[in-house]
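lol forgot to send this yesterday, sorry. struct tokens for the thing we talked abt
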């Protein structure tokens, strides 16, 4: 079998939408839909699902798929003139068959490169031309790594600013059994209080009621401990300054 068939399978998913399945030999896997460039499934070697996907996810483009890892670009949240979380999660991405080389080459075999370019329709609401590339890679040990590269292709050389997020929905058991380490003492914007800025107290985060916060200047490593399931997600990021509740890249 060609190596592409062992580690990377291009096929159809829900409602006939294009998806890519990444597999590693120990049995872990990930699924990526071209709609939204969105990871919708990430399973460990015991075939346990690590991401949350809402049972109400419709898989009806251009509606965003609710769950998994949404790509928020060129706007995260409501900071800006675009609709919440920008438009990349509503667009159909393409497989990038000839991506530019990666500065740090990894030995991952299960990966796919996706690309989203501006559409002329979109230029009317966000007047810039861009290429947004995303590599989703599954490591031999089951770690999931997302790498994004944004290129300004404005013909007049005009610069643009944007915000970006990996809007990740993790699967946990009982939220009251979950603890998040790495955000203590940080400043955050509280979406439930008109984005007012507060400072987190010293202890690891636990949850007793609804929480909707965006933490600023977060460390490169955050851990989510699910006591009931005895599972810890370790999130590492590079290059993005802030974090929403759980919006970071996963290594
Ligand atoms: O419903 P959406 O647009 O997918 O957003 C989901 C959540 O996204 C989070 O980033 C926001 O802080 C929440 O307020 C929002 O509920």
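and heres what i got for the seq, position by position
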């Amino acid at each position: 079998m060609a190596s592409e068939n062992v580690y990377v399978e291009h096929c159809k998913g829900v409602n006939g939408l294009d998806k890519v399945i990444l597999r590693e030999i120990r049995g872990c896997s990930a699924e990526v839909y071209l709609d939204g460039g969105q990871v919708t499934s990430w399973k460990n070697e015991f075939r346990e699902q690590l991401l949350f996907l809402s049972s109400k996810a419709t898989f009806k483009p251009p509606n965003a798929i609710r769950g998994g890892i949404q790509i928020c670009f060129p706007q995260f949240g409501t900071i800006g003139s675009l609709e919440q979380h920008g438009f990349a999660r509503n667009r159909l991405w393409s497989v990038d068959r000839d991506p530019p080389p990666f500065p740090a080459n990894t030995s991952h075999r299960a990966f796919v490169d996706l690309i989203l370019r501006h559409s002329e329709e979109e230029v009317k609401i966000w007047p810039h031309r861009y290429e947004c590339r995303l590599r989703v890679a599954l490591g031999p040990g089951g770690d999931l790594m997302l790498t994004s590269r944004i290129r300004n292709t404005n013909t007049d050389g005009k610069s643009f600013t944007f915000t970006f997020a990996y809007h990740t929905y993790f699967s946990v058991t009982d939220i009251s059994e979950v603890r998040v380490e790495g955000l203590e003492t940080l400043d955050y914007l509280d979406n439930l209080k008109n984005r007012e800025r507060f400072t987190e107290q010293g202890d690891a985060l636990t949850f007793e009621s609804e929480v909707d916060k965006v933490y600023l200047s977060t460390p490169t490593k955050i851990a989510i401990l699910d006591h009931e399931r005895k599972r810890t997600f370790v999130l590492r990021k590079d290059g993005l300054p802030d974090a929403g509740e759980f919006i970071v890249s996963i290594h």
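DSSP finds two helices and 17 strands in the chain. anyway ping me if u want another try
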